[in-house]
């Protein structure tokens, strides 16, 4: 079974500071990994994804994440926070293979991290 | 290209009633997944449909059901509503059934059960 742990349900940074949101996963096979952002009263928007290849993935709005297999981590970073980055962020994992049908369409999400950006 | 649309956006029902939520995927997308989002349980997978077939189902009671039509539009139904069914229900579509394809989410339907 796959699982995702996001360390820190709330993270607060100052505008212009580094943003670091932590995500660790558990999977018996190399997973596909995703970061989504959710603004109030909206659905989820994809920030970036890792499937195969380069382990440093760049996404939208200046975010990037690095897949570290040895640490089973996929932390999200942004060099300089902006007020508009305030939102809830979700790390998610899906299986690479639909073995037994257990991975079809299923994203397993972490509990989310609420990012607050102070002026 | 239009995004995923969900109707209605807000819904208020009473215990014991049933409800049907609708999802229209992005044009050309054949896979539709449904998720329930609550403050206590977070985002939980309900089921996924691909080419009108349910391929996967999460750990929810049989009161939760769904279907997909030939145009890929999907509906989910919840019968005998309980207070705990109050949640944001999110629909997501993707172009194919492969797990490496990202899912695109709609704005959700906010269901309140009184």
Question: Which residue ranges of chain B are poorly predicted, with pLDDT under 50 across at least 5 consecutive positions?
Answer: none
How many DSSP H or I helices of chain A?
0
What is the number of helical segments of chain B per DSSP (H or I, 4+ residues)? Answer: 0
Tell me the radius of gyration of chain B. 13 Å
Approximately how much beta-strand content do the residues of chain A carry? over 45%
CA(first)-CA(last) distance of chain A: 41 Å
Total DSSP E strands of chain A:
11
Main beta sheet strand tally, sense and closure of chain B? 7 strands, mixed
The separation of the N and C termini of chain B measures 37 Å
Which sequence of SSEs, written as H and E, runs from N to C of chain B? EEEEEEEEEEE
Shape of chain A: globular
Mean model confidence by pLDDT of chain B: 94
Mean pLDDT of chain A: 90
Question: Low-confidence spans of chain A: pLDDT under 50, at least 5 residues?
Answer: none
Q: By helix and strand content of chain B, what is the structural category?
A: mainly beta
Q: How many E strands of chain B?
A: 11
Quaternary state reads heterodimer
Largest interface: A-B, 31 and 28 residues
Q: What is the general shape of chain B?
A: globular
Q: How large, in whole angstroms, is the Cα Rg of chain A?
A: 14 Å
Q: Secondary-structure element order of chain A, as H and E? A: EEEEEEEEEEE
Please describe the topology of this protein:
The complex is a heterodimer of chains A (119) and B (114).
Chain A: E1 3-7, E2 10-14, E3 19-26, E4 32-38, E5 44-50, E6 56-58, E7 64-68, E8 73-78, E9 87-94, E10 108-109, E11 113-118
Parallel strand pairs in A: 2-11
Antiparallel strand pairs in A: 1-3, 3-8, 4-5, 4-9, 6-7, 7-8, 9-10, 9-11
Chain B: E1 5-7, E2 10-13, E3 19-24, E4 31-38, E5 42-50, E6 53-57, E7 64-68, E8 74-78, E9 87-94, E10 104-105, E11 109-113
Parallel strand pairs in B: 2-11
Antiparallel strand pairs in B: 1-3, 3-8, 4-5, 4-9, 5-6, 7-8, 9-10, 9-11
């Amino acid at each position: 079974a796959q699982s995702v742990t996001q360390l820190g349900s709330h993270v607060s940074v100052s505008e212009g500071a580094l943003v670091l949101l932590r995500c660790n996963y558990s999977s018996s096979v190399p997973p596909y990994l995703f970061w989504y952002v959710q603004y109030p009263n909206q659905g989820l928007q994809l920030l970036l994804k890792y499937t195969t290849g380069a382990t440093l993935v760049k996404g939208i709005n200046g975010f990037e994440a690095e897949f570290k297999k040895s640490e089973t981590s996929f932390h999200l970073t942004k060099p300089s926070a902006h007020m508009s980055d305030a939102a809830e962020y979700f790390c998610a994992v899906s299986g690479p293979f639909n073995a037994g049908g257990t991975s079809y369409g299923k994203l397993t999400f972490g509990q989310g991290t609420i990012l607050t950006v102070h002026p | 290209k239009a995004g995923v649309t969900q109707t209605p956006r807000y819904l208020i029902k009473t215990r014991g009633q049933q409800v049907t939520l609708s999802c229209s995927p992005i044009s050309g997308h054949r896979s539709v997944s449904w998720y329930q989002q609550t403050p206590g349980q977070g985002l939980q997978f309900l089921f996924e449909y691909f080419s009108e077939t349910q391929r996967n189902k999460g750990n929810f009671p049989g009161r939760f059901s769904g279907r997909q039509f030939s145009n890929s539009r999907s509906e989910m139904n919840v019968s005998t509503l309980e207070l705990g069914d109050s949640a944001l229900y999110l629909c997501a579509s993707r172009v194919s059934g492969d797990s490496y394809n990202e899912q695109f989410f709609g704005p959700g339907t906010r269901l309140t059960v009184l």
